[in-house]
Amino acid sequence: MLYHYIKIAFRNLLKYKLQSFICIVGLAIGFTSFALSSLWIRYELTYDTFRKDADRIYYVRVESETDDQGLSSVTPYPLARYLKETFPEIEESCNTSAWKTDFLYNEKKYESFDMVMDSAAEHMFEIELISGSRDFMIPKSNKIAITDKLAKEVFGTKDPLGEKLKIWSDDMEICAIVKSQDQHSNFPFGILKPSRQTEEWNVAYCQTFIKVRPETDMRAFKKKLYEHKVKKDRDSLNHFVLTSITAMRYDHPEEEPTIKFEHILLFALAGGLVILCALFNYLTLFVNRIRIRSKEIGLRKVCGSSDGNLFVLFASEYLLTLSISLLAGIALIEVILPVFQELSNVKTDSFSLYLETFVYFGFITLLAFLFSLFPIYYFRKRSLQKALKGSSDGKGKNLFPKASLTLQLIISIGFIFCSSVLIKQIHHLHTTDIGLNRKDRGDVRIYPQTDGLKEEIAKLSSIAEVYPDENDPLFPSHSHSYRSFTDWEGKPASVEGLTIQIIPCNNRYFKFYGLQLLKGKLPEGDTERHILLNEAAVKELKIDNPIGKTLSVKD
Question: How does pLDDT run across 497-507, given as a tens digit for each residue?
Answer without folding.
Answer: 788 888 888 88
